[in-house]
Design goal:
alpha/beta
Length: 437
């Protein structure tokens, strides 16, 4: 028994709000539970939220993700913490030798530890350990997708929801090494060596003698830290694993917002995309890409932001749903979120669907927002309960398959239709198949 009446400190990260007593700490691996179950016998479906923040920021107890709306509507909500930045994702040769396996991915192992805790303990809170849904946003959604390909996660969850992120990368061989989102262990270890040099340490022992603040200060400079194909937890790229039938086969619900990019992409990424197009032997596809995503000097006339939405978020979500529908026994459900105010003329920015899922808004919601939120919460709860978002009185959400390409579009009038940006995604898919490494 332990007293659990306050939130724990967030994991080590850049911190701007020093008025909050819960300053970041290495003592951060805690989770939060919201339940409205009257007894431990109720066996409600469980939803485990993995926060976003680019693997460098974020907390398990952000007001946005509180369970004050979801829990009374029939689920047990768990929100978890995981190590961030270098302390969560540093790979380094000495760490690899010490483990006898791999290194890096410590934040992912934290998520696994939380899921094991749920399996062992959630029944005491009225939760059903045989109906656990993992769901996350942005980099949290990335973690969800990587667990789908991780053998160690098998049986720890039964459904998966990814909002605005998916670790299905289009042909890793095309991506320059300095931009590779899922590097092999030896490349990640080289980054770790470089990081140790920037710290001025001679090895692992001296690095461990430094304060967490010193580590944090040093990681403000390149290289960044992220997930790694370590051969232990992550055994390969998800695209390859799913094509080979080596994945955790569960129902999935994946999607993104209509303006995920949110701004013009960095020039480095523009240059790389242009190099991919130049290396493609499919001239007709190049012309199609230029037609679907026309350039323009005026930012409002440019479609480059939609090109990057589809390439970095849309294509990975689509590829996951496509492979699940082809290789798996369980359904995939896809959404596009397009509820936005007039000042967001390009569409709904990244992560703006989160308040609708949790029912927690940063400002007073409009009647439209309340209606869409109630609908989305019911879909998410139905999915956590049955592995299918559909239910009595709700607009039918058709499952995705390669032939129909159906998705739920959350707009002022939510409805199921062919995925709105499917022509662009398919053109990008064709382009990548024709491009040379």
């Amino acid at each position: 028994m332990r007293k659990a009446d306050t939130f724990a400190a967030p994991c080590i990260q850049p911190w701007g709000d020093n008025s909050n007593p819960n300053l970041p700490s290495e003592d951060c691996l805690y989770l939060n539970v919201w339940t409205a179950a009257a007894t431990a016998k109720e066996r409600r479906p469980v939803m485990v939220w993995i926060h976003g923040g680019g693997l460098t920021n974020g907390m398990s107890w952000e007001t946005l993700s509180h369970g004050t709306k979801l829990a009374p509507e029939g689920v047990v909500l768990v929100t978890i913490a995981y190590r961030l930045g270098a302390l969560g994702f540093l790979a380094e040769p000495e760490l690899t030798r010490e483990s006898g396996k791999g290194s890096g991915n410590y934040g992912l192992f934290d998520a696994l530890a939380a899921l094991r805790w749920v399996q062992a303990n959630i029944a005491q809170f009225g939760g059903d350990p045989s109906r656990v849904t993992i769901f996350g946003g942005s980099s949290g959604a990335l973690i969800v997708s990587l667990l789908a390909g991780a053998p160690a996660a098998k049986g720890l969850y039964q459904r998966a929801i990814a909002q605005g992120g998916a670790g299905f990368y289009a042909r890793l061989s095309l991506i320059p090494r300095d931009l590779t989102p899922l590097p092999p262990l030896d490349d990640a270890e080289k980054k770790g060596d470089y990081f140790f040099k920037s710290l001025g340490v001679s090895g692992l022992a001296s690095a461990r003698s430094l304060s967490a603040q010193a580590i944090l200060n040093a990681q403000s400079h390149p290289p960044g830290f992220g997930q790694t194909i370590d051969g232990d937890l992550i055994v390969g790229s998800n695209v390859d694993l799913f094509q080979q039938g080596r994945f955790n086969d569960t129902p999935i619900l994946v999607g993104f917002t209509s303006d995920e990019a949110g701004a013009q992409p960095p020039q480095l990424l523009v240059d790389w995309m242009e190099s991919v197009i130049a290396r493609s032997s499919c001239k007709e596809t190049q012309a199609t890409i230029a037609k679907i995503y026309p350039r323009g000097n005026d930012a409002k006339a440019s479609m480059m932001r939609y090109l990057f939405r589809d390439f970095y978020v849309g294509w990975p979500a689509w590829e996951w749903a496509r492979l699940q529908s082809i290789k798996g026994r369980n359904h995939a459900f896809v959404y596009m979120f397009d509820v936005h105010d007039p000042e967001h003329s390009f569409g709904a920015p990244h992560a703006t669907e989160y308040p609708f899922v949790f029912g927690n808004f940063p400002k007073s919601p409009t009647p439209r927002d309340k209606a869409v939120s109630a609908l989305m919460r019911q879909y998410w709860i139905n999915f956590a309960t049955h592995g299918d978002p559909n239910g009595p009185g709700l607009p039918v959400w058709r499952a995705f398959d390669e032939e129909s390409q159906m998705a739920m579009v959350f707009s002022d009038s939510p409805h199921s239709q062919r995925l709105p940006n499917i022509d662009g995604i398919k053109a990008l898919d064709d382009l990548l198949r024709c491009a040379k490494p």
